[in-house]
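Protocol step 4 of 6: structure prediction from sequence.
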Amino acid sequence: MKRETLSLMGLSLLLLTVPMAVSQDGGPQPCPDVTPGALACELIAWSRLQEPAPLPEPDANPVPPSDQPGKPSPDSQAQPETSTRSIVGIIVRQGEKYVLKAGDNTTYQLDDQDRAKQYQDKQVKVVGRLDSTSNSLHVESIEVVS
C-alpha cells in the first residue's frame, strides 16, 4: 500500500510540473528575460553581474631583441660587414691604383693610396678594417715584413 501511495504522489507531481514547462500550444516556453545577442537562456542569475573584459590586442610588428647571439640586428643588414684584420702581402700597382696582393688570386683594394705608394713592390703587413662586400681595406697601418 505504501508503494502505491508513493507512486501516485510521484506521478501526480510529474503531471503538475510538465504543463508549466510547456506552453499552451505544446512547445517549450521561451526564456523569460532574453536580451538581444544572447545565445540561450541564462541559467545562472549572477552571470548578469559580471562585466566582459576584452583581451589585449597582440603587437602586430614585434621587434626581436638585437642582443640575441647568432641573429643579426635590423641595423646590421643595412651596413656592410667590417672587421679589423692583419693581412700580409705585396703592394702592387694595378692600373691607376695600388692594391694588396695576398696570395695567388686574392687582392684587396686600399683606401689610403698615398701611404700604399711608399711600399710598392714590398712585402708588408697591413692592419685595417676589411669591408667584405667590396673587398677593400680601410688602412690603419702598414709596415714592412722582413
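Step 5 (inspection) to follow. The helical segments are 2-21, 74-78, 113-117.
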